[in-house]
Write a structure and sequence with these properties.
The chain has two domains: 209 residues, NAD(P)-binding Rossmann-like Domain (Rossmann fold, 3-Layer(aba) Sandwich), CATH 3.40.50; 113 residues, Jelly Rolls, CATH 2.60.120.10. The chain is of the alpha+beta class and 369 residues long. It is elongated and about 90 Å long.
């Protein structure tokens, strides 16, 4: 199948083209503002499906709205008619087409042109009135408020929110691309004359901004957003895609002494805490027990032994561990325990606890194994 994509380097086009290639589509005609216009004649002659994503939404003057959103659509359809090519056409419009403004009127004109073309030629047309789209590769101060917020917040720049109660309907770029590929396979989501992306989120600007600032803070407090919430997961991915390239990393506070170090990595309210423990050769750490707190130890480098003793028993239980054979050791409540490095190099242990450490209620009691 030969696929024509107009606006191929725009936000949606770039994501779509990349995923089409991921799925094995190789004959993709990518048309952009920089493409030789003569190539469009060839592309419209040979293509089997058209993704018409090109458009104008931030012109220097309002006249460019109609030229870009109606005029180019007209050129595209005339070339298809010239070659008697009745390939299906998917066009991205906007919910703004329902409103009386320059951008909305230009989008509505493009829609009407496409529906008339379908009536005249019998070609299948799919018009998507998209709400606000967010995701990676969007442009700040151009594609969406979310792109601008992500860019500014990740760079400690101020943002402007006129009314935090403003409600937005949002679709995520991966969901848009998934729907567009369904349309390519003739299984689009359609209601009446328009098509839609089935996964839509309704959020206020205030909610979005609060989440974005919490993502920024998470690098300081070592928290992880609630990934069970699909919107939070997608917004977090979007935020990370805007990090400055010299700010991908962030330091952790290492608690270092002559025994080695202990470093908190991740803290969550509902999934506990992950830390990294480094023990020097011959060092024993632990010798304490918990009422309710429980842990999992995973030695990833070096070798050692983890010892347990039920606090009302004399029997010592030993588990020998090493980084060459990864196995998780559960640390049940009611057992005092320690871990000793038996090797001649540092031993590195990943430690998970079922709750973030609370200095006001540590639930940790010293007792030799």
């Amino acid at each position: 199948m030969k696929i024509l994509v107009t606006g191929a380097r725009g936000f949606i086009g770039k994501n779509l083209v990349v995923e089409l290639k991921n799925r094995g589509y190789e004959d993709i005609f990518e048309f952009t503002r920089e493409t030789d216009k003569n190539l469009l004649d060839k592309y419209t002659k040979e293509c089997d499906f058209v993704y018409h994503l090109a458009g104008v939404n931030r012109p220097k003057n309002e006249e460019e709205f109609m030229k870009g959103n109606y005029g180019f659509t007209s050129e595209l359809l005339e070339l298809l008619k010239k070659h008697n090519n009745k390939a299906p056409i998917l066009m991205t419009s906007s919910i703004q087409a329902e409103r009386d403004n320059s951008y909305g009127r230009s989008k509505k004109a493009g829609e009407d042109l496409l529906f008339s073309y379908s009536k005249e030629t019998g070609a299948k047309v799919l018009v998507y009135r998209l709400p606000n789209v967010f995701g990676k590769w969007s442009r700040p101060n151009y594609n969406s408020a979310i792109a601008t917020f992500c860019y500014n917040i990740s760079r400690n720049l101020p943002i402007k929110v006129n009314d935090p109660k403003t409600v937005l309907n949002l679709v995520y770029i991966d969901d848009v691309v998934e729907e567009f590929i369904r349309a390519l396979k003739n299984t689009e989501t359609k209601s009446g004359k328009f098509c839609s992306v089935p996964v839509v989120y309704t959020k206020t600007l205030g909610e979005i901004v609060d989440l974005l600032y919490s993502f920024k803070k998470s690098r300081e407090d070592k928290s992880i957003p609630d990934m069970s919430d699909s919107f939070v997961k997608k917004l977090y991915s979007t935020y990370l895609s805007f990090l400055p390239e010299d700010k991908f990393s962030y330091e952790l506070k290492m608690n270092i002494d002559d025994r080695g170090s202990f470093t908190e990595f991740i803290k969550t309210i509902d999934r506990g805490q992950v830390s990294v423990n480094i023990s020097k050769p011959g060092i024993v750490k632990g010798n304490h027990w918990h009422h309710t707190k429980n842990e999992k130890f995973l030695v990833v480098s070096g070798k050692g032994v983890i010892r347990f003793r039920k606090i009302d028993s004399d029997e010592v239980i030993e588990y020998y561990v090493n980084g060459d054979k990864l196995e998780v050791i559960d640390i049940p409540p009611g057992y005092t325990h320690n871990i000793e490095n038996l090797g001649d190099t540092d031993m590195v242990t990943i430690m998970w606890a079922n709750e973030p450490f609370d200095p006001e209620n540590p639930d940790t009691y010293y007792l030799e194994v």
